[in-house]
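A student in our group prepared the protein record below, which I am reviewing. Here is the record exactly as it was handed to me.
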Amino acid sequence: MKIILFGHRGCFGTEFRKIVSKNKKIKLFCPPSKKINLINFEKVKKYIIKKNPNLVLNAASIVGINQCEEDFLDAYELNSVSVLNLAKICKNNKITMVQTSTHAVFDGKKKSSYTEKDNPISNNVYSSSKLVAEYFVRSICPKYYIFRFPTMYGDRNNKLFGFVDKVIMNLKKNNKMLIAHDKIDSPSYAKDVAKEVLNVILNKKYGIYHISNSGVTNYYNFVIYLKKLMFSKSKIVPVNDNYFKSTAEKPLRNSIKSYKLKPLRHWKIALKEYISY
């Protein structure tokens, strides 16, 4: 099997590369963004046709509510329009397409975890740009996978640190932190997520999937547990999420789970392994 992975330097992409490297039956191509700009339709098309893959996995994205609100044209161009182009290329060349998405496509008003049965409702540029991408893939590609991820942590080959990366840096320095106690999530180890993505792909079960470690927690309790694992002396102060200014509406409850797949290990077990790694 031959796979092209766009977005190989991010958290998921980095872990996916490591997982695939252990499978001798898969040849993985990871073109750097400086060489293959996803916005350049003709160049992307030429590259894909030349490599002739069985599957194209797109994990490239502009992430973050504030960044996407401020640079909304760039956000839609990369998160939506480039996906439209990829979907067309995959369809015309009979290639399976895999699109990574996010729990942010839900408005966060459901009191329990979102599953694949729930209808997404976007409420900001980031979530809508990712949701539009999902619609493009679903409506154009006969064979596709869409994977929605929660907040993730893990190794990464870029410098775009996420929430957990920033928390870990502050805990190492024993810095005081203000953390939202009302923001609910399913924080997950990208290593576990990448393993499950590959498992689903190899089983050829097309469709939409939610992939996360099992269990639900709020950001405050997550950081408190992380602090304990790291033996940090940081003072963690609980605050409401609206304390942190945002240029758009932020969903508060974005935990996800799957009714299609067996539950992955609990987030506490996964986090403990990551910290001791």
In short: Residues 72-92 form the longest helix (21 residues). The chain has a mean pLDDT of 94. The CA atoms of residues 20 and 26 lie 7 Å apart.
